[in-house]
Amino acid sequence: MIGKALCALLLAFSVITNAQKILIPMDLKQTDDLKAYGIAYWALTKNIEVDWLLNYRGGSFMLDGAEAVAAECRIRGVLFEELSGSQSSQIYAEVQAENTNMDAVRLEKAPKIAVYVPPNFLPWDDAVTLVMEYAEIPYEKVWDVEVLQDKLPKYDWLHLHHEDFTGQYGKFFASYSTAPWYVEQQVMYEKKAKELGYRKVSEVKKAVARKIKEYMAAGGFMFAMCSATDTYDIALAAENTDICDVMYDGDPPDADAQKKLDYSKCLAFDNFKLEMNPLRYEYSDIDIPPSDMVAMLNPETDYFTLFEFSAKYDPVPTMLTQNHANIIKGFLGQTTNFKKSLIKKNVTILAEKEGTEEVRYIHGNYGRGTFTFYGGHDPEDYQHAVGDPPTDLSLHKKSPGYRLILNNILFPAAKKKQQKT
Amino acid sequence: MRRLFLILLAITPVWTAQTLSQGRTADIKQRLAESYERSGDLETAVKLFQEAYARDSSNLLVFEALRRDYLQLKMHDKAVSLLEGYLARNPKDINMLSQLAAVYVLKSDETRANEIWERAIAVDPSHEVTYRFVGSTMLQSRQFDRAINIYQRGRTACGDPKLFTSDIAYLYSVMLKYPEATREYLNLVRQNPPQLAYAESRISTYTGRAEGLSAATLVVEQAVKSEPENLPFQQLRSWVYMEGKHYDQAFEVYKIIDEKTKAQGHELFNFAMRALNERAYAAAAAAFTYIEKKYPAFDQMSQLKFGYARTLEEIDAQGDTTKFAGSQSQPERHPESQVKPLYGAAISAYERVIAEFPKTEIAARSLLRIATLKQERLFDLDGSRSALENITRTYGMIPAVAEEATLRLGDVYLWAGDMEKAAAQYKLLAGRAVLVNQLQETAGLRLAELDYFQKKFQDALTKLKSLTRNASSDVTNDALSLQIFIQENIQPGDAALKDYAQADLLRRQQKLPDALAAFQSIVQTYPKSDIVDDALVSTGDLLSRLDRSAEALAAYERLLKDFPESILLDRALMKMGEVYIKGMKDSVKAIAAYQRLLEQYPNSIYAAEARKRIRELRGDNI
Questions:
Q1: What values do phi and psi take at B336, rounded to 5?
Q2: How far apart are CA A395 and CA A399, in angstroms?
Q3: Taking a C-beta distance cutoff of 8 angstroms, is the pair B421, B413 a contact?
Q4: Is B87 within 8 Å of B96 (Cβ atoms)?
Q5: Residue A81 in contact with partner chain B when CB distance is under 8 A
Q6: Residue A11: predicted pLDDT
Q7: SS3 for A338?
Q8: Chain A interface mutation, best of B37, B70, B76, B106, highest count of A Cβ atoms under 10 Å
Q9: Quick one: which of A146, B143, B306, B333 is 20 to 30 A from B438 by CA?
């Protein structure tokens, strides 16, 4: 009996030791970190098992050692290591040991991704779609019509582009009110609002913001960058008031708009003060430093720090902060950082500029879903201006700033683990 | 009576003082209200303005301030009352009626707004200003469709079809209604032909979009059909055709324009040159021919004929599959050249230029083109040499052309095997102390190569050393490459290198079958030599050029198998991929070759290109 058990154990062991695995390290050795996420995603679409080794060599991926995986890594320029069964077992043992701050998370399926983006041409680029294109992660586009028609539930993950949910067209009026793209955008949005039965664009955007909130409540994952972060919360808070001036919606704002804000409806921010000057390129005091004071920043010394979390007890923030560097160079945006004192207490801060009020990266739960806000416009373009050419990510294959975006794309694929008590 | 007079006299100062005092108080209160307004305390400002207005409803400043602040505070009902109060006293004030209508829009009462706007129009329905007031408040309320409608009504009512054209056109383009916008711009041009450039600039804001371009084209064509004599319309038509790259159609229109403007061929010439630059060769050739026939006295005939010759050259080049001497094919070509050998028509055209415009720069350039074609495409070295010698003899006063001819003449002598004469030509350019331009540097490299071909390896190395000092020069890479090659293979017994140099010379002279035999001989004669891997690569390259793909692959495979330490292996795999694609038309094997490169040489300088080719062959959508 014992002999049979021993034989079975040996047989199992030999199967394990002979099974090949491929490790995609994500530390400084990796040649193309961004495409590595694409490989992980691609593997999931091919029903190949992928484990995310949190905090192991920068958040490496372990995959079944199919030749197709190796070939694809070579073709995409991603560094990989072929491991024997015993080598991979050793790594798993190390990662799952109690005395290490590491863990292995099984990625189950490739998340279905949607990007909320208007159909018209905009003279700037979106970092999230740029990196998804580069990493070859497919996505679909949705806009107001699809959101209001309840199409969001078919997606696992939603990115909000750089939309201004307050209905103030990005507050570009002062600089670009006569630019053809701005004029067309306004006409198109107004036409669409009318078709959808709304008198104002701001009303449509508020309705869309609420729909997105419902999507999160039902289990959706939402990711926003730059101005989509604070304007989203502002739109939720301003549900029962008008904060848009006459050039945006044809009538002046509510004189008591500030008093009528309902912060309880916001996801992340509290007690913020609106910027009511329609000619100022700012929405509220959430954004820090203000957009018209960025000349005081020095790109050479502008960095933010990622926090470290417990891989075993806090897998979600751990996944979101996987990186090969924990001090990351800063980059500006219409919304660059979030003022710490205005962030709700139940929101997790993932990265900030130490010793200051400037928080860069936050995450929270809503209902059964989650949201992540990441300040700034483009991690590899310090100050991206309207009309600038898009960033060439082949020149930034190891961008730590872009890795944070990709962490968010993969994390919905993670199998939910029972939390340790 | 006197008593009454005295009483009046007594109370007058008091009464005047009181009135003045009241007036001053009112002034102060108004200013106070304005201060509150400026500071943002609109509620207090409104209260004060209301008091002021109650005292004096004729004060337009106060009236305007109240109107403004009511709207700011969204007190729409009060704004309506204020305006209606004013209109009760001034019922024909069109501006105020329009403003009242705009307030009703803010109240979402569009029915009432329309009634008020109609009331405004009814005040003076045949005056332009009426429609401007009404239209502008509609624009403010972002009622674009209505604004267009009002402007159009204004035109009819005022009996002036020219009214509001720019406004309507702009509104249509903003609303993405391209056909309508184009029609309005055509109206503008019709009314005011000097506005053509403005109309083109406005239409160009939407011709970047396919639907905008096709709408504009269609509308302009229709307009021209109904008004064929309208020259600005024709010009607009030619412009949209060029925007859409419809060169043949544009050519027809340019004929008309040239005729109507009496440009004597200049409009057509500009079109022909643009078509040539944009590679629309058929249209360019047709245009050049047409101008020459129609305007025999054209004042830029030399440039025209040169342009035509260039066009014929480019047409033949498109179908030229020549890889080496004797391999020329006879592709489909321009009608004029069908009875002539390849480039025959172009050469004849250049010769005509030379004959008709001797001793000009155009003639010199024509000769240079002939020489180049004869050398590089037709392998007629004697013909090329003759043309180049003619240039250096006759056109020395045009340095730009003469220097290029000198360099090329050196190349021709080299190809012909006359090293001494080749060196003499190169020295004319490179013999100066300082090399100041690209041609001189190239001549310097040629001199080094001559030494190499003549097996004077040390002399070659000396020359190459000085050439590699300037890192920003275009010839530095080639010089470095040759320098390293010689240094690696020069040995006490350098027989293999000598044979290699000889084979290389044959290759340079385009004697490919002879060069191939020479490289193959090196492989057989010096099997242990370090130079054999280079010889195998050269063998493979030549076999590929000679369309012997299977043998080329065999040469590269032999290199991979027999020389595992060679630094040329990744290059061989790249070349195999190319042979599989172009020679064997086998993309599967090409992918396999590139994958092998990635697997075995992941750090190769060719890795990125190999990846790119795999993705292209796989049809990846990146």
A1: -65, -30
A2: 9
A3: yes
A4: yes
A5: no
A6: 46
A7: strand
A8: B106
A9: B306
Q: Which amino acid is at B592?
A: A
By CB atoms closer than 10 A (0-12, 13-18, 19+), residue B62 is buried
The pLDDT of residue A270 is above 80: yes
Q: Is B40 on the interface with A (CB under 8 A)?
A: no
* Interchain CB distance below 8 Å, B175 and A187: yes
Please state, in angstroms and rounded to a whole number, the distance separating the CA atoms of residues A104 and A102.
7
Q: Looking at residues A352-367, what average pLDDT do you find?
A: 95
Model confidence pLDDT, tens digit, residues B78-135: 999 999 999 999 999 999 999 999 999 988 898 999 999 999 999 999 999 999 999 9
| Chain segment A299-348, per-residue pLDDT in tens | 888 999 999 999 999 999 999 999 999 999 999 999 999 999 999 999 99
Dihedral of CA A396/A400/A401/A407: which sign? positive
Enter the DSSP assignment of B334: -
Is there a contact between A75 and B611 if contact means CB atoms under 8 Å apart?
Answer: yes
Interchain contact B616–A (C-beta under 8 A) = no
Instruction: Find chain B residues with C-beta within 8 A of A187's C-beta.
Output: 144, 174-176
- CA-CA distance, A127 to A142, in Å (whole number)? 17
How far is it, in rounded angstroms, from Cα A195 to Cα A182? Answer: 20
A187–B598 C-beta distance less than 8 A: no
Residue B179, preceding peptide bond in cis (omega within 30° of 0): no
Q: List the single residue in B with minimal CA-CA distance to A183.
A: B174
Contacts of A255 in chain B (CB under 8 A): 42-43, 72-74
User: What digits encode the pLDDT tens for the residues A233-255?
Assistant: 999 999 999 999 988 998 889 98
Q: Residue type for B562, please?
A: D
How large is the average pLDDT for residues A351-369? 95
Low-confidence ranges of chain B (pLDDT < 70): 10-23, 323-340, 432-436, 622
Residue for token digits 């139940």? A346
Collapsed DSSP state (helix, strand, coil) of residue A249: helix
Q: What is the pLDDT of residues A129-182, one digit of tens each?
A: 999 999 999 999 999 999 999 999 999 999 997 789 999 999 998 888 888 788
Cβ of B615 within 8 Å of Cβ of A242? The answer is no
Per the structure block, which two tokens stand in for A159? Answer: 């990115």
The closest alpha carbon to A247, from A285, A284, A201, belongs to A201
